[in-house]
Amino acid sequence: MSRRRDVDVPDLVERARAGEARAVARLISLVEDESPLLREVMAALAPHAGHAQVIGITGSPGVGKSTSTNALVTELRRQDKRVGVLAVDPSSPFSGGALLGDRVRMQDHALDRNVYIRSMASRGHLGGLSWSTPQALRVLDAAGCDVILIETVGVGQSEVEIAGLADTTMVLLAPGMGDGIQAAKAGILEIGDLYVVNKADRDGADQVRRDLRSMLQLGERPEGSWRPPILKTIAQQGEGLDEVVAEIAKHHEWLASSGELDARRTRRARDEIEAIAVTALRQRWGDVHGRTELDDLAAGVVAGTTDPYAAADELLAAFTD
Amino acid sequence: MSRRRDVDVPDLVERARAGEARAVARLISLVEDESPLLREVMAALAPHAGHAQVIGITGSPGVGKSTSTNALVTELRRQDKRVGVLAVDPSSPFSGGALLGDRVRMQDHALDRNVYIRSMASRGHLGGLSWSTPQALRVLDAAGCDVILIETVGVGQSEVEIAGLADTTMVLLAPGMGDGIQAAKAGILEIGDLYVVNKADRDGADQVRRDLRSMLQLGERPEGSWRPPILKTIAQQGEGLDEVVAEIAKHHEWLASSGELDARRTRRARDEIEAIAVTALRQRWGDVHGRTELDDLAAGVVAGTTDPYAAADELLAAFTD
Description:
Chain A is of the alpha/beta class and 321 residues long. Chain A folds into three domains: 48 residues; 208 residues, 3-Layer(aba) Sandwich (Rossmann fold), CATH 3.40.50.300; 51 residues. A seven-stranded parallel β-sheet of chain A has the order 3-2-4-1-5-6-7, sandwiched between helices. In chain A, helix 11 links the parallel strand 6 and strand 7. About 5% of the residues of chain A have low confidence. Chains A and B meet through helix 4, helix 9, helix 13, helix 14 and helix 15 of A and helix 4, helix 9, helix 13, helix 14 and helix 15 of B.
């Protein structure tokens, strides 16, 4: 309790904006831990956020996401951008080992004060993004990052969630992984703004590219819409990343000029507000001490004296009138 | 519109309860299609629901879920139970073919008037259960099914959702699929009330059983709690299903005597009421024609004039005061 009082939020935000990595880390911890100061933090960040370009990076395990993220950071630093990285780890203990190795490799940039790297836990075994990911994004944004990369395992719902959070979603593939079919299955054909075939020096890279191209062409796009390019990289050697950065910039220009950037950000803000409001309501419904209104209604449904729709009406009436 | 008026809900419910398959099918269609009559249907069903035992069946592709479901129906019919089956298909076109074959095999029971089989679409590519699954369950329950089997692909979130809906969750495994590791990864160790190693005549079945047993023992269980049995079947030949049915009955007894049955059903009703209430609220927030309150708030967040928490407070204040 006494430590909590020590936190001077406006000062922390000021120091984060001045580029102090420890202040950035502290702010992200406050949002991750759902600190009682969370609201104060978010209010203090609000006037400074909204400048960063958010890039989502997703793909099946083994395509080289961390290596690509690392190489992308190098390329962006070459262009003197301030970069934030949110790496959403799977919570599974089985993949922890391999990822740790990747994470260590990311330490290329550990001493660069214009790069913030933060690992975040994923939500449950389905690989969903943590609920605090949008808030952590806002911290990095307000701290003056020009570009924020969110790297996730391309498993379960995280790849759909990342497309909801990012301005530009980059889907990574690699030869020899049966990605053609996998791509269609996982729904990535709908979420990619940019496709990158990594490990392009391996057999089958051109085939992956061809398969992907024909699958993308099956879905017709209306006039004036963005046509996702398919690029090739060898991230391990930093090859092709300049082109990736150029295409990301091109996509950003398209987003801005088409009005889609504003539309995506507004949609994202809507979702965020809605999620916070729904969470608050759920807490209210369950918060009355002892037996709650919702418990009574649920008992009625089980007993057959009411049905779920009538019960939902009653619940809403009790809290909204 | 005129067809809609023709529907006499109380009559339909009466006929469903009398065992008329077409009436059951019609009621499920009404809930699936979100008919304007949905509320009337749910209200009419309420007094008659709450008797069926709900069994969830899940497992990775290829373990023999449909064959097992089919064999289980045969065994339950031998005991003169009225049985409902909800088969939640993956929406992926790639697996449609194989499943269709299974589904045809299920037609063993197509002419049995005490068996209702219904395929339901899954929600999106993640294999989540359709939002209307709880409502469809309620139809089968009110129609007098003693046991309802819900069969899902063991992919993504459906296996977690099924554990939330079922009284008893049965997890299927098979040798030769690397299921040991998969099991732990997929979180099925937390959801199974019953584990069944199918294809028990194949090499490695005993190994799967041993692996599973040692993994289940890692998680200590408090005194008086249910210890999930691990059974073996050859569903294709109907072998071992009698034991499965016996263990399901034992689990049901334990649920009832421990108070857990009531707890699970109340929890399920709570979730259902909450989901309906939240959906209704979301509609309200977005329903005002033209520019909504939520849109204005989202624009403020994007512009940095407010933050998502303050915006959520305003949203709730506008609708709940």
